[in-house]
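Project outcomes to date are best conveyed with an example. Our students and postdoctoral researchers have been running inverse folding experiments weekly, and each run begins with a structure described purely in tokens. The record below, which covers 265 residues, was selected by the lab manager from last quarter's runs and is presented without edits.
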């Protein structure tokens, strides 16, 4: 079970780093409960975020939005970092190999399978849809932006003690990389699991940058997707909707950018 084995190692390494980070900023559990901003954030996750299972338990009773210990906060941060980094990498980047070939994972059935006159070829997507699927999945599964465990230390002002913990975390990631390569060396070709190699895991969900937007404008025809832009360090969520093929074909890429975003950047 390579995913399980690799994921557990990454979880443990991340948890150690998050525990050190939390302990450095909060000297005691009372400092957790005394942080009004943290408590408001936790309460919002449980209410507006509807995370009913988020919160610490007292005996068998769990209180939504309750964070009172450093241990629980470290677990929460580990979950966030692991899900946005490792788990996302395991799901996102495997899409390209698995789903870019339309007959393997067709996104729809294009004929009635109960009709005895229908052939297998008629069931799978037509060529234009198959090419669209191939292009979109290739983009989604190919962009590796940032690296798990690497931070801009000019912006992230770490205490000296935390720099030591960060170095331990980064060294552990390199060890995990070697362990995965060693295991894969004993696997037959085609059975190697590389989705959780630390060197292939971004810090968080992949940013779709302007160059990729250029590709998407020419690739997408009738599709609605969420695009995350990376602008001067800020993540901006934009809903890109192309209602009809004619909209794409009748306007230049620059005009589309101006219409949709108010700028041709």
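After processing, the design step wrote out the following sequence:
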């Amino acid at each position: 079970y390579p995913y399980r084995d690799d994921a557990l190692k990454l979880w443990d390494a991340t948890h150690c780093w998050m525990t050190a980070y939390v302990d450095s900023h909060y000297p005691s559990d009372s400092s957790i409960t005394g942080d009004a901003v943290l408590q408001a954030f936790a309460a919002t996750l449980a209410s507006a975020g509807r995370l009913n299972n988020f919160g610490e338990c007292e005996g068998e009773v769990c209180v939504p939005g309750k964070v009172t210990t450093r241990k629980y906060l470290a677990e929460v941060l580990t979950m966030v970092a692991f899900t946005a980094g490792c788990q996302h990498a395991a799901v996102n980047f495997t899409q390209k190999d698995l789903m870019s070939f339309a007959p393997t994972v067709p996104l729809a059935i294009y004929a009635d399978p109960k009709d005895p006159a229908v052939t297998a070829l008629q069931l799978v997507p037509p060529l234009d849809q198959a090419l669209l699927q191939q292009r979109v999945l290739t983009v989604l599964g190919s962009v590796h932006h940032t690296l798990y465990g690497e931070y801009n230390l000019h912006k992230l002002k770490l205490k000296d003690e935390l720099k030591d913990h960060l170095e331990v975390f980064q060294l552990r990631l390199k060890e995990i990389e070697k362990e995965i390569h060693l295991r894969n060396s004993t696997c037959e070709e085609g059975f190697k699991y590389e989705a959780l190699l630390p060197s292939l895991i971004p810090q968080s969900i992949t940013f779709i940058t302007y160059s990729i937007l250029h590709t998407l404008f020419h690739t997408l025809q009738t599709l609605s997707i969420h695009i995350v832009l990376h602008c001067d360090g800020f993540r901006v969520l934009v809903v890109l909707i192309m209602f009809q093929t004619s909209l794409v074909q009748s306007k230049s890429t620059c005009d589309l950018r101006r219409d949709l975003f108010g700028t041709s950047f």
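Confidence is low (pLDDT under 50) at residues 219-265. Residues 6 and 196 are 6 Å apart (CA to CA). The training component of this project remains on track.
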